[in-house]
Amino acid sequence: MDKVRNIINHDNHDERHHGSIPVPVYQTSLFSFGSIEEYLGNDEKSDFTYSRGNNPTVRELEIKLAALEHAEAAKCFAAGMGAMSASIVSVLKAGDHVVCIDQGYGGTQSLFTTILPRYNVETTFVDGSVQSFIDATRPNTRLFYFESPTSLFMTVLDIKGIVAYAKQHNILTMIDNTWATPLYQNPLDLGVDIVVHSVSKYISGHSDNVAGVAMGSKAIIHGMQNEYMNFGAQMSPQSAALALRGLRTLPIRLPAHAASAYKVADYLHNSPYVSRVNYPGHPKSEDYELAKETMTGYTGLLSYEIKGLTFEQIKKFVNALNYFRIGCSWGGYDSLVLAFEMNKHKNDTEKTILVRMSIGLEDVDTLIEDIDQAFKKAAE
Ligand SMILES: *Cc1c(COP(=O)(O)O)cnc(C)c1O
């Protein structure tokens, strides 16, 4: 952890920045050259030429995130979805087949179901067990795409098992590692080929930024250069500065989020209205042992399944909460809540009532009291 803190918080003195402690926001669209010869000799892919390609503030974030994720290279995007779309498209061609978890983030699921089929890329959605990936594999399967933990049911996958099978069959693996952050899970060390993150969540951490990153070997990241340059979803220097600012306190914020989420999970495990708590950091969680194999810590996003209350009552519960703001996204200091009535897996016949909470940095006893009073109101 100490090494991580140094990566995050120590920058060498750099004369180019006049001793500025953070790398300044290089708010410039282009970079001029001393002579036309220098301009003609520049490489837009690696040099500072135009900010759609490279920018010093964004570069600083890429260097830090790559170091944290044990990646050779990182490319930052305007949103998590920018990173995911560019990464996915860069490794696929017409005729390829993808296997993807059926609990994944809505944006990526939509890419697989609405856009890629037009380019003759087919996707099979699976429940996430190793066997489900094996069963769905075809001779033309090129990519396994997954998240672990997932961000609705917090399902933990057997990453090592999935990777072992993929490697035997020359299939690329890509993981959305947003839940765990690069602090608590490093999938490249487990053999995963590409790691993508929404930097809008814990890394930025203050609900004030939309950003993303893709990381992997130099060959993989340089291989998506055309997608990066031509889709135009580059990260702005302002956004990079916000992400760098958030990153500084990530090792301090995450343990605080996790400690509170643990207490909330503990309370929920004893609630008569809860049939299942989805928080891999709690020993009573079904995924606890598996999570421990690949994760060194936990964050603050959890969910729980409801028994004995209708969805109408759960709406009342959500509206009765005073300390949880109602909204999508997660990973900020302010606690958030959402509720759904949905299928846990694609083929389920019964819908599950799910409450998802992003546990913020408020006093946790207040949060638990708030949940308690809202349950009582809902059950009236
Ligand atoms: C938010 C999120 C995304 C999308 O990221 P954006 O930054 O909103 O584009 C992808 N995956 C997960 C798990 C997320 O939570």
Amino-to-carboxy terminus distance: 47 Å
Task: Report the uncertain regions.
Answer: none
Count all strands and give the number.
12
Largest sheet: 7 strands, mixed
Element-level helix/strand string: HHHEHEHEHEHEHEEHHHHEHEHEEEH
Q: Can you give the helix content as a percent range?
A: 25-40%
What is the 3D shape? globular
Radius of gyration: 22 Å
Summarize the structure.
The protein is of the alpha/beta class. It contains 15 helices and twelve strands.
What can you tell me about this protein's structure?
- The protein has helices at 2-9, 36-40, 56-69, 80-90, 106-115, 130-136, 159-168, 181-184, 218-223, 225-231, 237-248, 250-269, 288-294, 311-320, 364-379; strands spanning 73-77, 97-101, 122-126, 141-147, 172-176, 194-198, 212-216, 274-278, 301-306, 325-326, 336-342, 352-358.
- With 380 residues, it is an alpha/beta fold.
- It is globular.
- The chain starts with a helix and ends with a helix.
- The mean pLDDT is 97.
- Bound molecules: pyridoxal-5'-phosphate (PLP).
- The site of pyridoxal-5'-phosphate (PLP) has 15 residues, from helix 4.
Which helices and strands, and how do they pair?
Layout lengths: L1 H8 L26 H5 L15 H14 L3 E5 L2 H11 L6 E5 L4 H10 L6 E5 L3 H7 L4 E7 L11 H10 L3 E5 L4 H4 L9 E5 L13 E5 L1 H6 L1 H7 L5 H12 L1 H20 L4 E5 L9 H7 L6 E6 L4 H10 L4 E2 L9 E7 L9 E7 L5 H16 L1
Parallel strand pairs: 2-3, 2-4, 4-5, 5-6, 10-11
Antiparallel strand pairs: 1-7, 6-7, 8-9, 9-12, 11-12
Bound molecules: pyridoxal-5'-phosphate (PLP).
The site of pyridoxal-5'-phosphate has 15 residues, from helix 4.
